[in-house]
Amino acid sequence: MTGSRAAAPARDAPPRHRPTVAVVDLDAVRHNVRVMKPADAELMMVVKAHAYGHGDVPVARAALEAGATWLGVALVEEGLRLREAEIGRPVLVLTEFPRGAEKEALAAGLTPTLYTDDGLASLAGASGERDRTTPVHVKIDTGMHRVGLAPELAVGFCLRVLEAGLELEGVWTHFAVAEEPDDPSSREQLERFLAALDDLAASGIRPRYRHAANSAAVLGLPESHFDLVRVGIAAYGIIPGPALEGRADLQPAMSLRSRVSLVKRVAAGEAVSYGLRYRLERESTVATVPVGYADGYHRAASGRAQVLIRGHRYPVAGTVTMDQITVDCGDDPVQPGDEVVLFGRQGEEEIRAEEVAEWAGTIGYEVVCAVSERVPREYRA
Phi/psi of residue 96, each to 5°? Predict the structure, then answer.
């Protein structure tokens, strides 16, 4: 199995009739992985949630080509998809295996995370039926309080992991607010993690991998790099938070594009789209574009969003509907078939996912993750 094959389009992909497409630049992914990888630590590319909407298998291969040595997923099913694509590199499942999934997950070579005695017992039972030692990573909750075990329980739990015949390959934690480097919480979490590592070392437990840094901590908290960093959003070219802007030369990997389907002149005083909330102050050319909230383009951005046509910004006129938006192009020459960029670059202009997020009252993560399955992905190597 390999992690270096070039992405290829599906042979049986249905024909495309609607022009809306998410274009994924795999060279941008490779660039971002190289930029984010510390010189003295390995890099895990987090490809959960369909690689944040970008496509897990093509993105995983690109990241591995660029120097990633691990892949991270949230679900067993996500890890199995990578194995079905013949990607054989280490894959960490970032939460405990669901009860009943252990045998299939271990047979596929997925690395489990552990943090409860129930999870340990289930995994040990499944592992005992195999002829090889199972490596595991134990997660310590240093302050986010989502999953993980308390730091003071780490030594006892890790000893039970070893007594169960499992290999303690890694110990890790996760930061809650690393995207805000001035917030003291991350350093407090790091101190708790370091104390837990010291306690483990005093008991003779020294795992191969210690990891804590997410994208934000890679950029803002270098003391947390340890042996492995887990890079998600930054590898897709989206800055984890405004306070980290400019810390790395990141290239957005996804753009959302469509084409004008209809153009009409609409008289001054007329209103456009559901709710008739956008009223034209003067006669204007209104362009209809076949993309909407069913495609993941946020309805919450209605009244604030802009798009690019012919290298210029134009306001989305009125409410974003399920399948279409309308755009106020004023008196400019716009024709059916003209490319429309919802986010991405066109000529000298660019709309970033972070800007769409601001219009929609959300975060860049959600903008790319929300691009739905009915939008085909087009990969550029």
Answer: -65, 145
Q: Taking CA 233 as the corner, what is the angle to CA 227 and CA 234, rounded to the nearest 5 degrees?
A: 70
Strand, helix or coil for residue 60:
helix
- Asked whether the beta carbons of 261 and 292 are under 8 A apart, the reply is no
Bridge-based pairing state of the strands 167-172 and 209-211: parallel
Among 177, 173, 174, 171, residue whose Cα is nearest residue 220:
177
What does the buried/exposed string (b/e) look like for 151-185 if buried means 16 or more CB atoms within 10 Å of the residue's CB?
beebbebbeebeebebbbbbbbbbbbbbbbbeeee
Query: Which residues does the annotation mark as catalytic?
Result: 48, 274
- Structure confidence by residue, pLDDT tens digits, 46-95: 999 999 999 999 999 999 999 999 999 999 999 999 999 999 999 999 99
Specify the 3-state DSSP secondary structure of 18.
coil
Question: What pTM, to 2 d.p., does this model score?
Answer: 0.94
Q: First CA to last CA across the chain, in angstroms?
A: 21
Ramachandran class of 66: left when φ > 0, alpha when ψ lies in -120 to 50, beta otherwise:
alpha
| Residue 310 CB coordination number (10 Å) | 17
Which residue is it, tokens 């020294």?
206
The beta-strand segments (E) located in 173-268 are 209-211, 228-231, 254-259, 262-266
Q: Which pLDDT value is given to residue 131?
A: 83
Residue 287 contacts residue 309 (beta carbons within 8 Å): yes
User: Do 261 and 375 meet the contact criterion of CB atoms below 8 Å apart?
Assistant: no
User: Residue type at 142?
Assistant: T
